[in-house]
Amino acid sequence: PRPGPAAAPRDVLVVGGGPAGLAAALAAGRSGARVMLADEQNELGGTLLSGHDTIDGQPAADWIAATIAELGAMENVRIKTRTTVTGYFDHNFLIAAERVTDHYGPKATPADLPRQRLWRIRAKRVVLATGSLERPLLFSHNDVPGVMLAGAVRSYVNRFGATPGKRAVIVTNNGSAYRTALDLADAGVDIAAVVDLRKTADGPLADAVREKGIDIRVNSAVVKTHGVHRVKAVDVQELDDSGTALAWQPERIDCDLVCMSGGWSPAVHLFSQSRGKLDFNEDLACFVPGEPFAAAQSAGAANGVFGLSAGLADGYAAGEGALKALGLKPKGKAPAFKTDEGDEGTLRTLWIVPSNDGDAHGRKHFLDHQNDVTAADVGLAAREGYISVEHVKRYTTLGMGTDQGKTSNVPGLAILAEVLDKPIPEVGTTTFRPPYTPVTFGTIAGRDVGFLADPARRTPMHQWHVDQGAVFEDVGQWKRPFYFPKPGETMHQAVDRECLATRESIGIMDATTLGKIDVQGPDASKFLNMVYTNAWSKLEVGKCRYGLMLHEDGMIFDDGVTSRLGENRFLMTTTSGNAAPVMAWLEEWLQTEWPEWQVYLTSVTEQWATMTLAGPNARRLLEEVGSDCDFSNDAFPYMGWREAKIAGVPARIFRISFTGEMSFEINVPASFGMAVWQALMTAGQKYAITPFGTEAMHVLRAEKGYIIIGQETDGSVTAQDLGMGWALSKQKDYLGRRGMLRSDLQREERKQLVGLLTENPKDVLPEGGQLVFEPRPKPPMAMVGHVTSSYWSACLGHSVAMAVVKGGHTRKGETIWCPLPSGKVVKATITDTVFYDPEGTRLHG
Fold this sequence. Notes:
The protein is α+β, with helices and mostly antiparallel strands. It has 21 helices and 42 strands.
């Protein structure tokens, strides 16, 4: 199986397939830019699909078809419908959820079940043509079934051929709802009245409504609905200049459908996610995009540009603007986009329609229809002291459902502003966070089926290992070579050969999987002093140091070698399986306990390919492979690092060892990993260079008594238990120091790390085997410890093992037994943990 795809690169991403989005895609696509057009609907066209507009003298549907055909013929344009761009992140990285299948029913097969695909998009420029959202009007009992947004009714009638009622009342504070009145009348619905909050209703749309004999009530409002399970009638009342209902008895109009429109709010969610600033437009009574933070621009209704001809022109201009920002030249002259739209006129803002039933506080004026939040709830929140818009949201649950404030956000802010007697911009908006619409966890995480359950990570040299017949083991999510068998070899034979080759000449191992964290900042050494048990302030640039990391309870968490790259920069290495937990642990302390420290952490594990050369001929090979570095002991001592070139590739070389042999860890940019590996293999043939895997590495390190976190430790082991008190500073504080002072951790009879040599050299103790001082023919026996590591050492001709034994540090030279399930009891002697080259002669060269 192949690894997951990287983010798809695009010159221009156009979000939204309405008129402005199509125009922007045309402008960018015609000039040859790589364009992706994404829209959440199953067909492109946006609001054009819900009306009878014309563009350039042809029906909008024909213009849409011609535009899609032109875009589809461009190889540089990719169109994605049923795809919701749901998150806008740093550096113009966006995610989109595509609905691939959508089949339900009792006869659905597993292949028919709903599936979604997650697109990860890296765009140089983004055009946000996400349209706008119609707002409700707040009149008494506006939550009765049959009260609908006028734009939604228009879509039902024109796009889906359904009439939501037989007799309708249109109530609006703007001209867009007049289109709904005309379309309903054409569909055979009786229009009882158009109730317009504005003082006048002039222009082509109003004239067309009057020509159909429809009554228009200006300077009036629906103040209340009647009906329980369905709207049956509305009360209409004339307003005075201030927007207050006049005192006389309202007129009751029978109807089963109320189409309301309280104006339109640009869908600025993605723009806000990109950290763009919003401005409040008083004329439109809505927030519009202001100064962008990312490489993005808004277009059409999303930019506060309403009207078809203006939206098309704005979209095309946005597409051309994206090209110019990329240094590309727009092609041809921008089209005129002639339309037949009528003037919708101005907007009259009346956030709460007065009531004729004594509901002065708006207890039945529903603001958020999903959460049943009323205007009165917002007023109560303010009186209770919740004056921050974020607090009001949480106190009332306003905008907290799947709608996420799309229809209720602006009216809610306006009502809060009135209660607080503040301008709406001063009240501000709630935070627009991803996702724009709900996305399943499965879409983001992927299907946990087969190899997808735990994605495999591969090093740059992985294919070479495969070609050499390596057997792999999983370490964390990494695929690491376990051993390299030759034809006819068993695992033990292969491991013995790899170990002996490393001890006698030279071995090479892929160590890319080691965790690597770049630590930078003026407080970097201060930070390392706290997370490691030993001191770091005086470590010289060019030097390396072993570090031990503890949890707060004093138990060993991780270890590794950290190198000083500069005065305020270090490179920390961690165990392969612990790289992510260590990174999270360090970030937790920086963000919660020491936020004032100037320390910056970057995981660079995948940035570097790492190969370890170990053995007496390691230095000779590096000197011959074509390097500009002096590898002598004087110039390059143990626990030092140097920048150099290996086979012409810039590298960081660290003289550290996990085998007990003279070793060099070579780090090169990941893209050069395979080339440098092959160069070393070719140059090393004269030394019979041998690749070795993790099992040989475990044998080699066990011969030297080096621990492995998670093998010699299990979350209940301290540094003193391992005989590593030398790594604990007595001069400074560090994480876990107080935890180690607990009396239980000072007991002499704690399990402590020791070495074991079996009486019969060929007996290899099982890892995890229990140990006793007094063996008996049958259980029970008092268990005093267990084997942590055990191997056959071809170099020593003897099995070696490490174990934790009660009071083990004072019992060296004593005999211990390991009862086996077969009934056999293996006798062993407790020894020091170092079995090979205890003086370190070979290590230092």
